[in-house]
Amino acid sequence: MADTAAKRETDSVGTDELSQRVKRARVDDENGDGGVGNDPESENILSEFKTSAVLSDSAREKTIFIHGKLGDQEAVVILEKTPIREDTLAELFTGSKLKLEMKNDIYSTYQLLAPPKFNEIKTTVVCPATEKHVKKYQRQESSLVEETGEDYKSITLPYIQKQSFSVQWVHNILDKKAETERIVFEDPDPDVGFLLLPDLKWDQKQVDDLYLIAIVNQRDIKSLRDLTSEHLPLLQNIFQKGKEAILQRYSLAASKLRVYLHYQPSYYHLHVHFTKLGYQAPGCGVERAHLLADVIQNLQADPEYYKTRTLYFPLRAEDGLLGNFQEAGRL
Ligand code: M7G
Description:
14 strands, binds 7N-methyl-8-hydroguanosine-5'-diphosphate
């Protein structure tokens, strides 16, 4: 699928049949007893999912990324076993069946068959998925790229202007067309304002893997590269009010947070990641994450810091941008 066609396809999200069915299923669930696994009447949109390939999986992280088809549309489905929560332990122990697997001296292993409500699997569906989504979730070798300010202008910018993921989902959030009930904090100011809400990756069941994103109201800041000292009031506002909102809502102190931007991001509308320190959030490594506190200091020291600095980031083997860096002899 050509990427431009793919982009058009993602732009239609919100009107296609699948999203109507997802909404219906969600409303059914909300109107029912709300319990996971207790509502057999909810429409299972995945019953007709046809797997074509496993893109990646991890026994350690208990995740699997699958490419397949939902009806005649390409889809990516992500399944993730959820953490065991302390507040469910009593019920888990009393309400489960235990099957002995082996016993040796003081050691024994069992298969614990928990009541259905404890078997929830966090499921994310991307449909229609573009070729770019499939590549994003595929296990691939990465290479570290060195991008000068000039490289950004001549290689990266033209590429992202043509090929990047649709940010329709971001506009839906800002326009209050999606995820409105999930908003944790809002500052409506057009220049320094933002919306803070749980990231797609966080099921909000435990603070241990807390993950929120702050999405800026301004629509023309693509990434870290666009930032200058002019944006300091915006960045400081996000840093300050984001931390306060998280303290208030989740009782998590600022000193327990990792607050950062990705470069390169997947979505070119400026946003800031807030994750719990100690939780190894995907993409929090030094090759991709830039602490907001450092970004602020760098811009205070040099207003054009991110316009002129060489920035380093990993690109996956099948990323078109990597190909463009190779063609330009920059790798
Ligand atoms: P990024 O740095 O652009 O890319 O971050 P990454 O996905 O490679 O990290 C975008 C962030 O937005 C990620 O943490 C995503 O999980 C999150 N995200 C993506 N989508 C499509 C949604 C969405 O629809 N809603 C919410 N709440 N978060 C999203």
